[in-house]
Amino acid sequence: MKDHEKRFDERIKDVKQAAGNLSNAAVRFNSAVTNAWGTLDKTTQEYGARLAHIIQANALDISSKKTTSNYEDVERFYEQSIQTLNKTIVNVRKYIPKLHRALRPEMATLNSALAKLENSIKALGTALDKSPGTRLESLRRQAEQIIQKQAELMKLRSLEHDEAEVLQASSEQESKIARERESLLSTPEFLELKRFEDALKLKGDEIHQFFQPLTKPLLKLERMATFKQASVNIQTLRGLIDKPTETVVTSQSFTIIDLLNALEEKLSQHALEFEEKKRRKSLETISTFRAGSVDKMREEYLALQANLQETIRQLKSKGLLEKKEGLDRQLEEERIHIEKTSEKKKEINRRIDDLVRTIDRQKSVVESQISALTARGIVILTE
Fold this sequence. Notes:
It contains 13 helices and no strands. By secondary structure, it is mainly α.
């Protein structure tokens, strides 16, 4: 950069010299405006004096700026000079048309000085563009981006570590609650509850299975009832199709018998189209029902149900059921928290992976550019 820094110094001197010349031209222009008393009207004189003051102030602003030959300082000086020049040009274009022809020579001198300043600033810009500083500045910005992304990556990794600790603590708490719940369910009271629940389910499944051969015949009977071809209790009919166990337990026996009598009649009359084997099976099921087998199953079901309710009552009175429900809630809450934490951790990990890939790509680009500038291989190390 040393040769280019020498050129920067030369171009900066040219800019400041041109700014000084413009300031002098503005002073002379102001003198011409003052000496033209009587030739210019008051408004024009005010315009001229104002323009001269603005140009002189802007020119002094450029010539008085202190800067080094460092690329960043020179680029900053260049940008500030461009801004000041543009403000000056705007004001010249604003006021010049309003000034009298008597000031034409001074205005020409002013424009000439302004043009020289513009050219000197352009020359400085060209020197900046031709210097390695442009590429070095680009590398600096890219390196800063890598540093920023690396800081973001470290922050994300810290967050991921925190979430991992939270997840570990939640998992341990879940296991603790699950063990406590399992221990509670292993007590004699809850083992008895489980025995009644299982027995009740088995008895319910037995009732349900008993009516299985009648499901399709009952559906066809329902269809006939819809078209007024059979007179049956629709509510009981639908109950035996959808919820046979509940219907048997809660309904009167005679309503079910009446319904099955109607079904038997239609089956016997071959009013319902069925394979002979299935028809016989349905009739056998109806006969078995009449023999009282379902009544026995219902009595057993109701007895189990009563025992179950009594066991639940005892568990409530001892506070054991409330304790179990509390553990169930805690376990559910902990599992929800674990799920949310896991999703959050996955999202952080996804962002980490994306950021690592981005940093690796940027590192590769910067390494290649630096190697091309220095003719030496280079590797950028990041944590």
